[in-house]
Amino acid sequence: MTASQPLPEFDGCQTVRRIATGPIADLYQAIQQPLGRQVLIKALSPSILPSSPFAATLEREARLLSALHHPAIPRVFDFVRRDARMWLVLEYIDGWPLAELLGKLGRFTPVSATAVALELARALEHAHRHDVVHRGLTPDTIFLTRAGQVKLTSFSVAVDERMPTAPELLDGGSASSAPAYMSPEQILGEPADPRSDIFSLGVLLFELLSGTRPFEGTDERSVAQRIRHDAPTPLGRLAPGVPSALERVVMRCLEKMSSDRFHSAAELVAALEGALDDLGGGPVRARALEALASAGLVDAPAGAGDEPPQSVAVERPRTSLAPALRGLVALSALIVAGGAAIQYFAARREGTSPARGAHEHLELTPASAGYLRVVVEPWAVVFVDGEKIDVTPFARAIPLRPGPHHLRFEHPAAPAERREVELVAGESVLVDVKMRVAVAAVDGGAAEPFELDARATGDAGDAAPSP
Fold first, then answer.
1. What's the confidence (pLDDT) of residue 179?
2. Is residue 437 within 8 Å of 378, Cβ to Cβ?
3. pLDDT, tens digit (0-9, with 9 covering 90-100), for 289-330
4. DSSP structure string for 44-91
5. Are 6 and 19 in contact (CB under 8 A)?
6. Higher pLDDT, 452 or 224
């Protein structure tokens, strides 16, 4: 179509301009009459017959979107067939893709990045509840509107368990997502499930926080290899201002095995809500508007730099509370003394030192860290200084403060294993543990413990049972 050619007409809509054209579908901005509302027209290219698989995919996208009703997912207003033509009438998004914002900003602030990821996780939770897996999360398919709304677009490659036919891509490609944002199972050509979307969201959040993707490479093949085999660079190295709790959320999204990630988008939503509260909270739209304002795309939201409102003290009638306070102090002293004794004896039973205060938690992202890598056969729950870290296998290195650390490995069918390590800042220590798993004798005799031989059971490390 040249500039002199007239814009196509669509029933009930006045075409304003052509936004983009592709080999399969063209996009137009239009005004739906008589409502006068702005809409996006996604029309099948004139060169594609309505009987082709590509046309079936456009109809499929319309059916998927019609079943979803979420503020972060564009609405579908109509699906029209007219002779040899076919088009979708969609909600018009007046905003910018994340790719453009990243190009302007380099990276988002932790609070803005978390707010955007939270809204995306909520959209995914809604889609997954309706059996829809997006499969195509990238910075080009996510938009921030002028009003600060987050929009997840491009459901043309989504899958629905109720629609078994695999979709054909409307851009003429063959991958369900850009390789840099695909999960390990997608790289291997395995079916995507909701946890595949969680991995892609983890890649996006990593990029929003650090300005770089966790798995970079010189070409698509090297990127795919890194996604399958390499642990991502610790986020704290690339973005030192990211809180450790938020880094743990990102790294769990990026686990190689889908069973080690968040089990659902709902679980990820809860984790991101907690991380956002730790960062100061606030409405998602306000945080998104802050990012848009930083990029110079909108005016700064009113009150963005204001101090949070202070609580107002209310004067109440004064009553003598001295007798009650004396009793409360005595009771508190008894509770503290009893708690200290319980902690002491519990620590002795676990074989750990009670020196670490009850309020002091293991610092998993210290400013200057040493790194612990763990390999366990067949698998174990890993504790560091008395705190549970994760269940093996996991590929990432654990960043810890330099100095001595006590490790404990637990398996339901084996005695606990303990190790002591001394970490040095900037260096990595590998701990290789073989659990002495007890297996019952096959001849009906008494159970005799022996070390499980991975050669006799297959690759036990690839399929860790739940503890």
1. 87
2. yes
3. 999 999 999 987 655 444 333 333 333 334 444 444 455 545
4. E-TTS-TTSHHHHHHHHHHHHHHT---TTS--EEEEEEETTEEEEEEE
5. no
6. 224
Question: Cis ω on the peptide bond leading into residue 110 (within 30° of 0)?
Answer: no
Count of residues in the chain = 467
Handedness of CA 285, 290, 296, 298 (dihedral sign): positive
Give per-residue pLDDT as tens, 60-76: 899 999 999 999 999 99
Are the C-beta atoms of 15 and 8 separated by less than 8 Å? yes
- Residues 170 and 54: their CA atoms lie apart, in Å, by 6
> Is the pLDDT confidence value at 372 over 60?
yes
Tokens of 182: 């695909």
Three-state DSSP class for residue 407:
strand
As given in the structure block, the two tokens for residue 121 are 């996780």
Q: What per-residue string of b and e applies to 111-142 under the rule 16 or more CB within 10 Å gives b?
A: bbbbbbbbbbbbbbbbbbeeebbbbbbbbebb
Q: What integer is the mean pLDDT of 79-102?
A: 94
> Angle at the Cα of 115 (from 109 to 120), degrees rounded to 5?
125
Task: For residue 344, give both structure tokens.
Answer: 């002491």
> Around Cβ 340, how many Cβ atoms within 10 Å?
12
Residue carrying structure tokens 């290789």:
432
* Alpha-carbon gap, residue 343 to 352, rounded angstroms: 11
Report how far residue 113's alpha carbon sits from residue 206's, in angstroms, rounded to the nearest whole number: 9
